[in-house]
Write a structure and sequence with these properties.
Strand content: 15-25%
Number of strands: 8
Shape: globular
Strand order of the largest sheet: 1-2-3-4-5-6-7-8
Order of helices and strands: EHEHHEHEHEHEHHEHEHH
Bound molecules: SN-glycerol-3-phosphate
Number of helices: 11
Helix content: 40-55%
Oligomer: single chain
């Protein structure tokens, strides 16, 4: 399973990248706003900064909702850097645009996926990645991980090539469960990635090793 970081915060992206386990970055307009990036020039520069920092797929989201607007915006984003993947919302014109991007060699990430039906349409249109939002499904009282299992099963049976990019990750165990469910990619906040490092027995075991090592120093 590939690891992406789900943030537009350059310091957090650098910290995850320095671990050596980062395969890419996902952003969205809310994450850009969270770090105070707004306006086309600033957003463009920010994407280029991220691409120069991380050698992996970088999702850049369109904000148009009509076919012509999505295609125009996506072409501009894709031209910024070879690693840009155009992130397109799961709406009718979004699916049409994803098909257009597929036919024209531009990679896409279909975002805001909340059902298996949406995942089937995105795969049919040729999306490179589909992004089910598992945390937001959990928030509504349904089971986000169940959707990952369902999409994995459908894609395997049908031979769909889109990669399942589990998004809206809230805690470390989500990452483990996504790996079990066969997600191709998990995009995570930095805290959830770092949370995987932690175990109290590792801490107490290391403390004991270091204490014993002093006996022979
Ligand atoms: O990648 C999607 C993600 O940014 C949404 O996460 O926590 O806002 O549901 P969240």
């Amino acid at each position: 399973m590939k690891f992406f970081i789900d943030t537009a915060d350059l310091a957090q992206i650098k910290e995850a990248n320095d671990l050596g386990i980062l395969d890419g970055v996902t952003t969205n307009p809310s994450l850009m706003a969270k770090v105070g990036i707004s306006g086309e020039a600033a957003v463009t520069k920010h994407y280029i900064d991220i691409c120069e920092m991380v050698d992996g797929d970088i999702s850049a989201e369109v904000v148009s909702t009509d076919f012509d607007g999505i295609v125009a915006e996506g072409k501009k984003l894709a031209a910024l850097h070879k690693n840009i993947v155009v992130k397109v919302p799961m709406i009718k014109d979004g699916i049409k645009a994803i098909k257009w991007f597929t036919d024209n060699g531009i990679r896409t990430n279909c975002t805001l996926i909340f059902s298996a039906g949406q995942a089937i349409l995105a795969a049919k249109a040729g999306a490179t990645y589909v992004s089910p939002f598992i945390g937001r499904i959990d928030d509504t009282g349904w089971d986000g991980l169940e959707l990952i299992h369902q999409i994995r099963q459908i894609y395997s049976i049908q031979g769909y090539k889109s990669e399942i990019l589990a998004a809206s990750i809230r805690y470390p165990n989500h990452i483990i469960k996504c790996a079990e469910a066969g997600a191709d990619v998990c995009t995570c906040p930095l805290d959830s990635i770092l949370g995987l490092l932690k175990h109290p027995l590792t801490d107490s075991g290391l403390a004991k090793f270091l204490e014993d090592a002093k006996k022979f120093a």
